[in-house]
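pasting DNA alkylation repair protein for the record, 229 residues
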Amino acid sequence: MITINDIKAAYIPLKNNEHQHSMESYMKNNFPFLGIKKSVTAPVMRELFKQGLPVTKEGVKTLVDDCFLEREREYHYIGMVILNKKEKLFNVTDLDYIEGLLTTHSWWDSVDTIAPNIVGSIVLRERNIGEQKMREWNRSDNFWLQRASLLHQLKYKDKMNETLLTEFILNTKDDKVFFIRKAIGWVLREYSKTNAVFVKDFISSNKLSPLSEREALKWLTRTQKIDSN
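structre below
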């Protein structure tokens, strides 16, 4: 079974100073990087995972926490991959734990990985309790948790709870934070591929920020252009 020391032993020799600076710049210098690109870490992760991942929830939490305790962003990324691979071990009682991950080293790349892939899967299995937790996040003072609440249904398609989506967007649509406005547009755009009528009606009935509306209509506008050609 792999440990954080195994991960570090595999990653440290791959450190690339040239890529490090460009990756840190892309992430607005919020985190230090080793400078290992995804195309390099992907095969390394596959080899590491052959050693075996923890089989218990507590074991997974320990390894993921070890990854998040490291400074460099690449360790956070592999921690999220491990969590995603083992998300079936988790349920709604673990949403407080996942909230801790979302609010540690917070940035769009971690929130956008954890919310739709891990939180979304957990909530879908236990919607009554899970959706109440999402309401808490949506009303939070932490805009990363608000973004996570908006994006947890991103991949739901015909399983979308439109009432909940409407509630969450109306609660946040006047927020000035770029990441909230972008998330509103993104989740509506994705859902427009499943229910275009709902998205069109929602936008016509509710005043969204120009950014949210533009993002929400991107797919519909593109398909309309294709149809007209």
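The mean pLDDT is 96.
The chain is about 70% helix and 0% strand.
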